Protein 1
Amino acid sequence: MEQNRQTETGYDTAKDLQPERMILFAADTGDGYDVQKSLAELAELVKTAGGVTVATLIQNREKIAGDLYLGKGKVEELKEMANELQATGVVCDDELSPAQLMNLQDALDIKVLDRTIVILDIFASHAGSYEGKLQVELAQLKFRAARLVGMRDSLSRLGGGIGTRGPGEKKLEIDRRVIRDRISRLKSELREVALRRDEQRKKRTVSRIPVISIVGYTNAGKSTLLNRLTGSEVYAEDQLFATLDPTTRNCKLPGGQQVLFTDTVGFIRKLPHHLIEAFRSTLEEAKYSDVILHVVDASDENWDQNMNTVYETLRMLQIDARSDKPVITVFNKMDLLPQEEKTAGIKDLRADKTVYLSAKTGEGTEELLAVIEDVLRSLKSYIRHTFSYAEAGKTGLIHKYGELLTEEYLEDGIFIEAYVPKTILGSLGLE
Ligand SMILES: Nc1nc2c(ncn2[C@@H]2O[C@H](COP(=O)(O)OP(=O)(O)OP(=O)(O)O)[C@@H](O)[C@H]2O)c(=O)[nH]1
Ligand SMILES: [Mg+2]
């Protein structure tokens, strides 16, 4: 898919540039964090942003250096590597401070980026909707404003993302005040979009069709699963953050019940703070759902860490998975696992239900649908009651929102056996 590419500095850069050759680097402070794996993920991010990784460099050190992030000797080594490999830039796996960024740029004399810039860059090029574009711009500006603190003439060195040229004279003219004004305009525009979305949500709530939100690490297969379940053709691609805009599709469960599935932006470790703030209303989709469908790529060797990241991000968004609403964890891409490894040791103790499937082949999706029906039923109460004929309105409610098992017209009233949503028990006088 041809994407409109608008990078950190606002230039359209997709067309004529050679892929940037990047060296990735990180410090290993021995805090138990797997730096090797994190760099592998960073390489995926760089690839998605249109660059190639030509080498990686890790330094073991107890503390991150405040001035250069790495030690002086290591920076020298990085410089030699860059010369040798004709690298056009370096990418740090952590977010660099403005001082680190400038000092490194001085020392290396090539483009210096970090994980946050790369992620912002990807979001910028993948944003499709009006809201998505506003959100990305807001995140970029807030990020830029934060980095402007204490900087004057070195601004031109903040050369934006992969494939991006320096900001140029025009950008230098943008001072903090302009940025601040633009930020408040964007915020008010976003508030309006969010209001409109709230209204849509309310309509959905009134219709009482259960909403199931699909969450998960980026590239876990969320959109592929949505397509599989609802027969739609949402963009799904082997790249990070393919989806940024929430998409809702409806689906009829085998038992006949209508449900809505919502697919949205994926999570990742170290999701930039400004992005979370800007994308809050998008990321919070899950808050307004009845059930959370957590998709995990079981073929990723970091599946358990990724799972934790998703739960942590949900917590950060104040979505208290499980205590609020049921969680169904879907271990996806089972087709990629060798037969003997299937399901062995792969589990999620935090989920209410677990399903193993392949969104690609479709194997296991019937079971998932059955589990969804089961879980939705657990959100309902079983009732057996005879309503007087004067209460016909109540039986109407049951027809509309419940799952009717028996209805008999007797002398003294209407006998009903049904599953009804717990939320309408009050209106039925049965609480
Ligand atoms: N082998 C295999 N590949 C899968 C399966 N499900 C998804 N994929 C592939 O995984 C990649 C990512 O799938 P998406 O559906 O775009 O993943 P996503 O979770 O929506 O990703 P983002 O929107 O980028 O966060 C695509 O290349 C899919 O074809 C599966 O069950 N088996
Ligand atoms: Mg997707």
Protein 2
Amino acid sequence: MLPTRILLDLDDVCNRFTMYALKQVGYPVDPLGYRDFNPEWGWDIVSAANTLHPSRQFTPAEFWDSIDRDVWATVPESAEFKTLLRRCEALVGSENVCILTSPTLDSDCLAGKLAWIHNHFPKRMHRQFLIGPRKHFCARPDALLIDDGDRNVEAFRAHGGQAILVPRPWNSLHYMPTETHLHDAFTMFFRMKEHAGVT
Ligand SMILES: [Mg+2]
């Protein structure tokens, strides 16, 4: 089915949260690339941090406490962000694209994410966001989730939605070039749209 609405993940889809956060808490990683993240670490930034620096061990609470509001607010955009937003708006219309982002337990995270949205998205999107950890509540057959988390994508599909998994080193598409995957996925949807328009 052709999607009529898109739910767009923020962290590590629109921005470079993971690598930037690791850099901000003191690890010598390249915040603008992914070469320092070993795919074997999987979806666990805290164990990635602890592996990078075995002499400095964080509990999950300590790790998330160390990411303050400014860090959330100043994460650089991902390489894909501008093109991805343009494609989303072209496919379903700007008014049908909604940011969908899961917060940590720390209120600094919520405030920082709102600042990020205001600083990076065009004004027309400033009231188009949902914040919540249960992304699958937004699933329906014509809804498309774009997310870098395998679990989010699986749950969304299991509840009847469509999803694109954005390849990153911590997910099951880590071997895939990100832009190629996004290009191919959107090409398929644009073809569907074109076909729907002529029949
Ligand atoms: Mg994400």
